[in-house]
Amino acid sequence: MKLLLCIPHQQIQFAGVNARAQISLPLGILSMAAYLREQNWPGEIDIYDARLSATIHEQHTPDGPITVFGDDEQTMAERIRAAQPDVVGISNMFSAQFSRSERLAEIVREVCPQAITVVGGPHVSVFPEQTLAHPAFDYVVVGEGEERLYALLQSIEQGEVPEIPGVLGRPEDTRLLRQHAKVKVDFIKSVDDLPLPAYDMVDVDRYFALQAAGFSPRTREWGKRAVTVITSRGCPHRCTFCSIHATMGYRWRAHSPDYVRRHLDLLRTTYRVDYLHFEDDNLTHDPARFDELLDMLLEQSPRLPWDTPNGVRGDTWTLERVRRAKESGCQYLAVAIESAVQRVLDHVVRKRLDLSQVDNLMDYANTVGLRLMAFYVVGLPGETLKEIETTFEFAISRYRRFGVWPGMNLATALPGTELHDITVREQLRDPSLPYAANQITTDEFSPQDIAVRYRQFQRQKLKVFVWRSLTHWRDFRENLKLVWYYRGVAMRELKKALARG
Fold this sequence. Notes:
By secondary structure, the protein is α/β, with parallel strands linked by helices. It has helices at residues 27-38, 73-83, 98-111, 122-126, 128-132, 146-157, 204-215, 245-248, 257-271, 287-299, 319-327, 342-349, 355-368, 385-402, 418-425, 447-471, 473-485, 487-499; strands at 2-7, 10-11, 13-14, 17-18, 44-49, 56-61, 64-69, 87-91, 116-120, 139-141, 167-168, 226-229, 232-233, 253-254, 275-278, 306-312, 330-338, 371-378, 405-410. α11 links the parallel β16 (306-312) and β17 (330-338). α1 (27-38) crosses α6, α2 (73-83) crosses α3 (98-111) and α11 (319-327) crosses α13 (355-368).
């Protein structure tokens, strides 16, 4: 049996607005491939990432032309036909990209009608029944895929009808799901039992080259051979806008420091990795375990630079912990603050976070010279315009005072979140629109109200950016690196603008 694991090309235009093309190593697929190999699955495994060509072109669809990043449909069809797979596994990470996964499954039907199609990822984990209703999908895998894909392949090989919790092949298979609004499956209890990702099964150097060329998902990609590392899964907190629980659950499950050490040794010695992105959903959930990770990073020689682009909590920090993080190679911490109003944090976001501790972290980071950026989100049902303005003002004041770069996000009602459920129940968003930010209307505000204040915030942020660049040597150095890194993106956008006349 031959298994072809696929990542479709990427749509980079939504409602006439271009998004930035992005690519990084497909960790989910590499983990599943490694698990199959460790279980001595006898089949052949191939991986096809349609983004690797890095071409940007227009693709015609029944709904009109779209701009895509990666292979065109003809190339994808030729690649799949040449592989002649028995099973095609399609990875879909984002709801906004789901139409591309549907189209890839349709292409498989056209060129390899005998092949069985399997799809997994966050979107299908939230909408398994709707996904299965599409005629191009044979099976839907909900939640973590390593164990479920292996069990499914075994059933297919033996000619059995799968009876696997979390795998749907027929409408009646929904009885195998848990009766829970968000978490429909169980999760791997001991993540240390999983093998390290199968990096050897893809062209790692090609991913590094594209990331260095400006296609990295990271806003600050200082490494030439940078990788994302996930040292834990799940998060016990219940922020209304977070969609992680459908695929990773509420229970926090961490790799041991020894497992992480083995992983880093592989990355350094075999792939010459020079930068790490710790992208856990809750890296610092257990402070003692985080201290052990810092101990392990401090042992590295030379020390690997690292950051936390997915954000960490703003509590549990001490001056000594911040100092040790910097000494271990941390280039910046991203802290998830969400709102500058304690009422909004407590009752709207429902994030258990004391804002006074966040100011302490900012002070500590400023003291030891560790870069800090902050995530905020505005436009949530339950906020008032005054509270939204307070968050904008807080973000600017902390940027001016501590140099904390403000990453301001406009609320997006992603499937699988309580926010999505609220917007559907109270009809706060036009359901015909593709999922995007700032589409929520309440009695307190409209998208236009948020947009006006967001533009004002961006102007203020630019002023502080210039002021701090001219008055703080550390900001000048870091901001110069940032501008230099995005020069390629800027030139591409300039060329496109000139071509449009």
